[in-house]
Amino acid sequence: MTDPIPGFSKLTKEEKIEWLSNTYLANNPEAKNILQQYWNPNANLQQLHEEFTENTLSNYYLPFGLAPNFLINNELYAIPMATEESSVIAAASKAAKFWGKRGGFKAEVLGTQKIGQVHFMYQGDKSKLPDFFLHVKPRLLETVAPLTKNMEKRGGGVINLELRDKTTLLGDYFQLHCTFETKDSMGANFINSCLERFAETFKAEAAVYENFSASEKDIEIVMSILSNYVPDCIVRAEVSCDVKELADHEMSGEDFAAKFVRALKIAEAEPYRAVTHNKGIMNGIDAVVLSTGNDFRAVEAGIHAYASKDGKYTSLSHADVRNGKFRFWMEIPLALGTVGGLTGLHPLSRIALEILQKPSAPDLMKIVAAAGLAQNFAAVRSLITTGIQQGHMKMHLMNILNQLNATPQEKEVLVKHFKVHNVSHSAVEEQLEKLRS
Ligand code: MEV
Predict the structure, then answer these.
(1) Model-level pTM?
(2) Which portions of this protein are annotated as coiled-coil regions (predicted)?
(3) Which residue is catalytic, options 279, 304, 411, 417?
(4) Mean residue pLDDT across the chain
């Protein structure tokens, strides 16, 4: 057991690493070097990264790659993806190529509204609250005017403000349920600032409201926070083609379509499969969300909640065949920004948005949804034809070779060898041993 360290955050980066090396990494003489090796030689860039968060010791790299040839609403995009998972970018590119020849992705934003709530407790006469709310509502909107001024110029702001009685869920629990439009910003700071201002004013006005008794005047504000559940900030992405155009791996188009739809029905019916199916979608979504400096935790939380909006966790995507036409689509909630937050601050996010031709937030929603659907198509296509391991292990080969410390020459020989042989950890090990002997 080590003793707690007081004032760790006050230490310099070097002192923090020194303490860490002595305390938790004493048996690893390389640890300090490894941490330092990831410092950027450009001091300004390093400082920028250190200031993104606290107690920074080093930088944690992820590959930043590109999936080109994405035809979305008749525009060709190259999509930047940050991911560590082998085969994700290859799969996205392959699916993009496949659908590029069949009309591409059609994507449409169905809504852009976001929600925030002031959660409060009120123990008085319930019938007095709606009147108080009507009385205080203009004042609430007035107090956020300085915060909403700029957002309103961009066409956003507070869209709606409601009082909600939640006492059937929890005794004395009420909400101010607020709807926001935040245009090209994800809007978390804007929403939270508005909510905190609402809460302050709401409490202060209650304290002097003449129809409240002394105890009723004492409303308890529990918290004010945006919701990452955004079922009205929705994008739909779809691909479609004649069934005949789906012939694949010695399967007729009809058989492929039928098996694909069946695989989707399984994901709709069975939560164990749905989670993995949706994880495949998130492989594409997270990679673009991350590359563009957006909040992938918010996106993950919101999307998975949406996947269980009808009371049971289910597939986010769906497929059908009608009149000889195959359709594959999904609708997902996505709260994204293309201004503010990390988007303009992280040099690679800036580049990612430039690669995407500086999209608006709704445009980015369409691109991200297309990437998710492409990823899902690629995964299910593999699953119902060759199986996932063939493609995955091919892409994973380099990781195995690196684990086994293969030299560049050895890698070259073995990559060639495994172009025509099945990859498995033991097969690679065996071939490498053979080569070395
Ligand atoms: C692996 O990262 C993702 C898949 O499991 C998705 C799926 O099963 O649909 C291949």
Answers:
(1) 0.93
(2) none
(3) 279
(4) 96
